[in-house]
Amino acid sequence: MSSGINQGGWREGLLREDGEDRRSRGPGEFTRLRRRPFRSVRRTILGIPPEEATFERRGFTGGNPASRIRLEQVGTSFLRGYNAAIDEDELEPLVRRLNEVDEGFRGFAFEGAAMGLAIRDGLTLWRSKRLETLLAGPGSAHVYMVHVGAGWALGRIKWPMRRVMASLDPLLRWLVFDGYGFHEGYFHWRKYVFNLARPGGLSGYALRVFDQGLGRSLWFVHGADTETLPATIEAFPRTRHSDLWSGVGLACTYAGGVNETELQALRCAAGRYAPHMAQGAAFAAKARQRAGNPAPQTELACQILCRRSAARAAEVTDLALIDLAGDDNYPDYETWRLRIQEQFS
How confident is the model at residue 41 (pLDDT cuts 50, 70, 90)? Predict the structure, then answer.
C-alpha cells in the first residue's frame, strides 16, 4: 500500500545536495550536513547583516568620503569575522575564513570572531571553550583584538560573561570593558556619546576602561573628522577626557583614515592629553606588530603622536611590562598604561 511519499524522490533528495552525490561523502561530511539546520537557526537569531556597518545605517554623518569608505570596510571586516564565528562549528574552517580577509583588516575579523565565540560560549549551558581555543591557537597573534572582541559580547549578553572572562589573560581581560564601551558607542551613540550616559552594572576602574573603548568609537561616529571630534570630547566631564583621548589615539592609529596634517591637528587639539593619545597609539602599534600586519597608517600615526616609529612605540609597551607588580592604587593594567604615558610626556 502506498504511503503517499514519493520514495524515489525522497531517496534522490538524500543522495544529492547542491548537485553533489552524498554517497561520495565521508563520515565527517555527514556530520556537517546534520549541523546545517542548526547553523541556519544560529544565523537567523545571532547573525548581523553587513549593512549594519554602513554609515547610513548607523546614522554617522562626519568625515570625507574616503575616510567613510575605509571605516565602513573596518566594520564589514569585523562583521565578516563575527558571522563566520556564528556559522562555523570547527576552528580550522573558521580561521581559514578569517585569513581570507585582507591583511590590513584581518585583525578586525579576528575581533569580530571573538565576539561571536564569546556569545556562543556564554549561551551554551555546559562549559564551552570556543573563545579559549581560539586564543590558545591562531588567535594568539591577535590577542589584543580577541580580548576586545570578547567585550562586544557584553553589549548583547551580560549575565554569562563572568564565566567567559575567567578564561582570559589576567592583565588583558580589562580590554573586555574596552570592547563593551566601543559596542555601546558604535550602536548606541546618541545615548552614550551625545547624552553622556553611563553604563549600568559597571563600577570602579571598569568604567574608565569602558571610556577608553567609547573613545575609540568616536573615531567612527565622527567619520575620522578631526575638527568635530575634539568638541565632542570637551562636552564630557573633564575626569573622562584622558581615557577618551586614549581610545581616539588607538583608533586613529590602528584603523586610520586621515592624513599627516589631520593627525597633527588632532595632536594639537588633545593638548595636555597628548601622552594619553600616544599611549593608545602605542597599543595599536604593538597589536599590529604581534599580529605581523603592519600598516602605513599605523607608522604615520606613531611618527606624529608618539614622535617615534611604530616599532619603537611598540617597544615602549614591552618595556613598561617589565617588573609589573601589583599596586594598591591601580590595577596592573592601569599601571602599565601610566608607565607608557610617562614615556610620551
Answer: confident
Contacts of 186 (CB under 8 A, 6+ apart): 58, 217, 220, 221
Is 302:313 a contact under the CB 8 Å cutoff? Answer: yes
**pLDDT, greater one: 135 or 33:** 135
Cell of 127: 562549559
Cβ 265 vs Cβ 228: under 8 Å: no
Whether 298 has a pLDDT exceeding 90, the answer reads: yes
Over residues 155-209, the pLDDT tens digits come to: 998 777 777 788 899 999 999 999 999 999 999 999 999 999 999 989 999 999 9
Q: How big is the CA angle at 210 (ends 136 and 235), to the nearest 5 degrees?
A: 150
- What are the helix and strand counts (H, E) for the chain? 19, 2
First to last CA, the chain: 89
Q: C-alpha cell of 102?
A: 585582507
Grid cell, residue 125, equals 549551558
Return the closest-CA partner of residue 291 out of 115, 159, 116, 111. 111
Q: CA–CA separation, 306 vs 301, rounded Å? A: 8
Residue 194 and residue 236: Cα distance in Å, rounded? 9
What's the pLDDT score for residue 188?
96
Give which of 90, 88, 110, 92 is closest to 101, Cα–Cα: 110
Residue 33 pLDDT level (bands cut at 50, 70, 90)? very low
**Cβ-count burial of 59 within 10 angstroms (0-12 exposed, 13-18 middle, 19+ buried)?**
exposed
The answer to whether 145 touches 179, Cβ cutoff 8 Å, is: no
Q: Which of 33, 60, 98 is nearest to 291 (CA)?
A: 98
Contact, 85 vs 79, CB < 8 A? no
